[in-house]
Amino acid sequence: MSERVQARWLTTEQQQIWRTFLLGVARIQEHLDADLRRHGLDLAEYEILVCLEESEGRRLRMSELAEAVHQSRSRLTHTVSRMERRGLVARVSCPEDRRGVWAQLTDAGFELLRSAAPSHVESVREVFVEAVDPDDFAALGRAFGRVLSVGRESAD
Amino acid sequence: MSERVQARWLTTEQQQIWRTFLLGVARIQEHLDADLRRHGLDLAEYEILVCLEESEGRRLRMSELAEAVHQSRSRLTHTVSRMERRGLVARVSCPEDRRGVWAQLTDAGFELLRSAAPSHVESVREVFVEAVDPDDFAALGRAFGRVLSVGRESAD
DNA sequence: GAAGAGTGGTTGAAGTTTCAACAAACCCCA
DNA sequence: TGGGGTTTGTTGAAACTTCAACCACTCTTC
């Protein structure tokens, strides 16, 4: 496209990396989803299970959970409802703040997580951790750390 | 969770990088979507426009386009239908292969792309290209290149 | 201690994606 | 030449996400 006054395009190399990145991310998600689907889970649900499992009492307030797994509240409400129907989590109303609701990992949820985790981790390793040269992997950690700090800098 | 027979977990560091990566990706998509939404587009639609714009005659077979933007055929059918309703693309039936359909970028689609591109590129730069140290950025290119080659190796 | 502002979470409808089934056209080969 | 198998793309329903509105509760503040 024609050059405009201030438009700064990316160099060919930057563009290529950017596209490789987009495809790579898609590929990773595909790979992980394919694995988790065999356990009847998707990545979002898996992350919910992990978060709960790691929390005190294996439960978290809906809003905390939403934050942790990077979902909107509304989406989480729906997702948790579905998971509740399947018996993976339970809603427990929170005594201190009666608006509040805990999402509580059930035993069944924990068992499912336990059965899904090994092959999930193996998938992560396969498609990502071991695919990449260790130095590049470390660089990747720094890189995304920087991405996360963008726009937060002045706020700290 | 307890250690099992063969389960190889990630090291703390690997795990941390993995999570940073997941959050970083979410952040990037959020950032880009927020920008594109101001033009009434999302990332998937934008990619469709870009792909078409770069193709011979500004058109592509549906299946080629699906491949290029990494969407299922069905999803692409629906997405293109919506974009067609908005006048951004047109369907043209393909004379050589009468099963085939070209998705053809319209002038309106091109104009929208032209108006959306500068700030989109600026967003990419902001949240990604410039956020990251150049060496790490190059490493990232290598890393995702490797990710893409996993599982294809024996096939080539 | 009650009005107003804010927070936590849900709801239902509209919009989007996925899934399985399908129709039309092509390809091959006898 | 006309089956059978494959490829292309669409369809409609089910599943999921988004969006705006909403209720119930808490936190001020006067």
* Oligomeric nature of the chains: homodimer
User: Given this structure, which CATH class of chain A is correct?
Assistant: Mainly Alpha
CATH topology of chain A: Arc Repressor Mutant, subunit A
- Whole-number total of structural domains of chain A: 1
Rg result of chain A: 20 Å
Greatest contact between two chains:
A-B, 56 and 55 residues
Q: Specify the CATH homologous superfamily of chain A.
A: Winged helix-like DNA-binding domain superfamily/Winged helix DNA-binding domain
Pfam family, one (chains A, B): MarR
InterPro entries (chains A, B): HTH_MarR-typ, MarR/SlyA-like, WH-like_DNA-bd_sf, WH_DNA-bd_sf
Protein name (chains A, B): MarR family transcriptional regulator
Domain HTH marR-type (chains A, B): 1-149
Structure description:
Chain A is mostly helical. Chain A has one domain (13-127): Arc Repressor Mutant, subunit A (Orthogonal Bundle), CATH 1.10.10. Chain A contains six helices and three strands. Chain A has a three-stranded antiparallel beta sheet. In chain A, a hairpin with a 7-residue loop joins strand 2 (89-93) and strand 3 (101-105). In chain A, helix 1 packs antiparallel against helix 5. The radius of gyration of chain A is 20 Å and the shape is globular. The mean pLDDT of chain A is 92. The interface between A and B is large, with 56 and 55 residues. The structure holds a DNA duplex (30 and 30 nucleotides).
